Amino acid sequence: MSIQPKKMISEKVQSMEVSATLKMAQKARDLAAQGIHVISLSLGEPDFDTPEFIKEAAYTALKKGNTKYTPVPGTMEIRKAISEKFKSENGLDYAPSQIVVSNGAKQSIANIFMAILNPGDEVLVPAPYWVSYVEIIKFSGGIPVILHSDIDSNFKVTAAQVEKAITPATKAIIFSSPCNPTGTVFTHDELKEIGDVIAQHENILVIADEIYEYINFTDYHVSIGTFENLKDRTATVNGFSKGFSMTGWRLGYMGAPQWLADACNKVQGQITSGAASFSQEAGAVALNAKRIETVEMRNAFMRRRDLIISLLKEVPGLKVNQPQGAFYVFPDVSAYFGTSNGHETINNADDFSEAMLTEAHVGTVSGSAFGNDNCIRLSYAASDDEIIEAVRRIKACLVGFLPNPQNK
Ligand code: PMP
Ligand code: GLU
After folding, report:
1. What CA–CA distance (Å, rounded) separates 130 from 180?
2. Ligand found nearest the CA of 45
3. Residues paired with residue 238 on neighbouring β-strands, in sequence order
4. For the chain, which domains are there?
5. Ligand 2 and 19: CB distance under 6 A
6. What would the pLDDT profile of 109-155 be if each residue is shown by its tens digit?
7. What does DSSP assign to residue 335?
8. Which of 252, 250, 224 is nearest to 238 (CA)?
9. Helices (H) and strands (E) in the chain, counts
């Protein structure tokens, strides 16, 4: 008797999409392994090394034997550092008992949805959204309710849209600012308007994903949890992956109302037992230090943003947004829908992204993975040379595809 994987794998996992960001990054690696020179602008990962003093802190932690389980929500040392960071940088009041440190912000988000969702509960997800929100919501039994926005509003949903989407089944709203994949940063007033709508309804949790906080080219970063009427119902998610260039350390965290922190602690206790001990020790050192490298990396990203935007604007047919943070640009490529270069046809953003990979050897991610069918995402967490060469290739490749003037 043989085993039938189709029967073995749960329906939940069978209906789960593979992470599009990770999938495209892998496709680019596969082509590179065949000897093809691929420029991968698909994965959202800073290309800088982790600052030396943070690595030193991890070596020290290991050498002194900090290699054992920590308390499930994190060591008191890192939770204190996070609580102080929330207070001093964001104006948020989360006591150390309200902090849960996890294996990346991804796990913080998974903990929250596993902790709050019952089958049929709805979660409002402004689009474009980060790929994993929707899959984690579905996996946790919830129903993602997508709120659409477009490039002309710089990808901002309005309070009126949020109001209209709320039903008795609405349990939460989740968004990122600065946003992955658009780089949009919400202003105080925009968040206040949306927040005021939420606050009028009982039992809707706000999940503010602030993982790109430090990669912000504006002079404001507003934490929605500071609004008086949302204080007791906001979970603020953040992490070390982006601002400290620590993707591989798998270290993220959230501050939340005590009831939610307790529930997430319970989930985490059964699922991972928490984040790595030496990552936590180094993370506390990172948070307690000045943000020197963080600011340097932010400045480099801003320069690269300007570079890639100016280059993309020279590509006929692309409509380019103006990102204000993170390290992504999300151009509208729909002018190319319905075109062909003789052997590849572009009918949608998936085709466009695929054609750029196979024809131009540039890895991007289709906007469809982020809830937008007209755009693609390019990560400019890459060197100037890579950015210049990638856009040159895209531009040259697109000469073969004649944009349909009606779509312009
Ligand atoms: N939120 C957003 C918006 C992201 O882009 C990412 C990407 N990694 C995460 C959360 C998760 O980050 P990590 O798990 O590496 O902390
Ligand atoms: N958040 C990054 C991205 O959007 C890393 C990959 C992932 O975790 O999805 O590309």
Report:
1. 6
2. 2
3. 253
4. 5-49+293-407 (3.90.1150.10), 54-288 (3.40.640.10)
5. yes
6. 999 999 999 999 999 999 999 999 999 999 999 999 999 999 999 99
7. G
8. 252
9. 14, 14
